[in-house]
């Protein structure tokens, strides 16, 4: 029904406007009697074989929603009814910011992809915390944190620490987002020496709490093998809890979309089916190189259950969807979980 009826209608309109319209619609229907129960009945897959112990946390199933979808933590309780095992909110920055100028979100229908240059648009820490206080405890929540666009380089770490400290009571794990191609000073955020400084500062702050929260790093899919070797060394050196592989790509290689169309869109991060194989290759390389010494959350181009299985078999402990959720609908979540049970993974 979603792909044959709902998606064709939604795809007639501006992607960003559709995003907010869909949020409002899900909020509205979830308030209707019995609707949430019906959604859970339709999409929620149960099974002891789905449970995952990762980062010291127990996930009901290995399928999560990637950051960027519920930036301000306004819909995670309703989205949980579709069968996710975890949802990552954010990216959250200390102060709210409007992000990059519109238009900044584009569909590549023939490629089953999306290009975005949102620029960490979000309502800021206080707004996110207000929403997280409404957590009904249905699933694990990750907090994806970043810096404000106008923050001076010498204050980057302060931004991350401010987000980390304020969100600590409300999320189950943290993601340091240093790999988004749509924010300024991308180069510094990928400098190994700075990353060591940032990670150690956040870890020191973590130790000031009674319960320490897992901290993972989100990396780009465009890293070469030397850079991936550095990531492995970084994780082992800092004893980071894990890695998310991967963020969006700046590559436009192999797309069906015309060069004219791509030039009209301009810069931005590419997600969806076009980066599936690249993301899986990064997961496998990290897993093999590290001898599976740390958990990996696999994300990028998951549009079918088999796509998710490929990432799990490549070495991912968990997977996340985003663009695939938009193109394929909520049935994708149950399809993946059923396939995990069938495969005995």
UniProtKB/TrEMBL annotation:
Cofactor(s) recorded in Swiss-Prot or TrEMBL: FMN
Pathway of action: Pyrimidine metabolism; UMP biosynthesis via de novo pathway; orotate from (S)-dihydroorotate (quinone route): step 1/1
Catalyzed reaction equations: (S)-dihydroorotate + a quinone = orotate + a quinol
A Pfam family reported for this protein in Swiss-Prot or TrEMBL: DHO_dh
Family, per entry: Belongs to the dihydroorotate dehydrogenase family. Type 2 subfamily.
NCBIfam families per the UniProt record, alphabetical: PRK05286.2-5, pyrD_sub2
Function: Catalyzes the conversion of dihydroorotate to orotate with quinone as electron acceptor.
Designated name of the protein: Dihydroorotate dehydrogenase (quinone)
Source organism (scientific name): Aquimarina litoralis
